Amino acid sequence: VTTFALLTILFLSGAQPEGVLLLPLGQIDTAVTRVLRHELARRFHQVTSVLPTESAPEYAFRWIREQYYAPQVLDSLARRTTANVKGQWTGHLLAVTDVDLYDDGLNFVFGQADLVDRVAVISLVRLREEYYRRPANPSRFRERAVREAVHEVGHTYGLVHCPDPRCVMHYSQRLADTDRKSSRFCRECRARLPHREVRR
Ligand SMILES: [Zn+2]
Ligand SMILES: [Zn+2]
User: Among all ligands shown, which has an atom nearest to the Cα of 191?
Assistant: First the structure.
């Protein structure tokens, strides 16, 4: 999907350009995109739309790590939303992928965001119990996906990491951090959200 197509889809779908767009990169369970769409709309009070699925970000694969380089995924997302559509795109784009992401100096990342270009990506890989050789727990998996999605989209609204371990903007270094926090903003973070309608 080119940038032109992205905008066409955006306008044809009636989505507001300032809303949140979900972009599945690779095959993602529709039950997951459905719950993310619903929860993001609820948390940010913005129209949230799901774009047609695109291929997994193979361009970001690094043989030496057997992982995918998250900053390159963000670059690719940012190119389509900013450089090519100056002024027209004021939305927030969250890519959802099922490949394992990493960044320099980190073994992995659950997700990453660009605060300036308002693009973000999350990986579902390490949110499943099965990854840790434990029995599957679909509801816990979905809760984790929502927390990571709200966290990364929160960054695209300019929020930074929060010291409150219960706040969704708390940094998740390990899965235990994700499990400890909620999908909600603490009072301070909510007050920092830019739009009044987003803050409610
Ligand atoms: Zn973060
Ligand atoms: Zn907070």
Answer: 2
- Closest ligand (CA of 103): 1
Q: Is 152 in the active site?
A: yes
The full DSSP string for 103-157 is -TT-S-BSEEEETTTTEEEEE-GGGSGGGGTS---HHHHHHHHHHHHHHHHHHHT
54 conformational bin, left if phi > 0, alpha if psi -120 to 50, beta if neither: beta
pTM of the model: 0.89
Q: Per-residue pLDDT tens for 136-190? A: 999 999 999 999 999 999 999 999 999 999 999 999 999 999 999 999 999 999 9
Distance 148 CA to ligand 2 centre (A): 14
Give 26: exposed, middle or buried? Use CB within 10 Å, 0-12, 13-18, 19+. Answer: middle
CA angle 19, 22, 25 (to 5 degrees): 155
Give the model's confidence band at 13: pLDDT under 50 very low, under 70 low, under 90 confident, else very high. Answer: low
Instruction: Tell me if residue 68 falls in helix, strand or coil.
Output: strand
